[in-house]
Amino acid sequence: MKPCLHPSLVEMNELEAYLDLAAHCGYEWVDVPLHWIQQEAEKRGASRVEDMFQSRRLQLASFGLPVNLYADEADYVRDLALLSERAAFAVRVGAVRCTTFLWPSIDER
């Protein structure tokens, strides 16, 4: 097992600063919200995002499932329709794992 920096451990929401911190602290692996990666790719291009990881010798450990499992049905269906496109993009920047969580209970029957 290798240590992995998770965004819940830091107070930032910008990809480049997050990757700089991870590299500075000696991490090899990072978890990154997919929307951070997408925003950066829209600004600078997907190749630049790939370079951001490679130049810091960081690997993407996982990204969060970009589908809100607890949204209303319309939002869930919209997110689900975009999943293959988002997953293909995540793979391009090195993702091989996707994570999510399931609530342990719900208030409905």
Please tell me about this protein's structure.
By secondary structure, the protein is α/β, with parallel strands linked by helices. 47% of the residues lie in helices and 12% in strands. It contains four helices and four strands. The protein has helices spanning 15-24, 34-44, 46-55, 73-92, and strands at 4-5, 29-31, 59-64, 98-99. Strands 1-2-3-4 form a four-stranded parallel sheet, with no helix packed on it.
Concise summary:
The protein is 47% helix and 12% strand. The protein has 109 residues and is an alpha/beta fold.
C-alpha-based Rg, rounded:
15 Å
| Count of separate DSSP helical elements | 4
What do the pLDDT scores average to? 89
Any idea what the shape is? Answer: globular
Question: What is the count of β-strands?
Answer: 4
How would a textbook summarize the main sheet? 4 strands, parallel
Measured as a percent range, the helix fraction is 40-55%
Low-pLDDT sequence parts: none
Order of helices and strands: EHEHHEHE
What descriptive keywords fit this protein?
109 residues, alpha/beta, 4-stranded parallel sheet, 4 helices, 4 strands, 12% strand
Layout of secondary structure:
Layout (H helix, E strand, L loop, with lengths): L3 E2 L9 H10 L4 E3 L2 H11 L1 H10 L3 E6 L8 H20 L5 E2 L10
Parallel strand pairs: 1-2, 2-3, 3-4
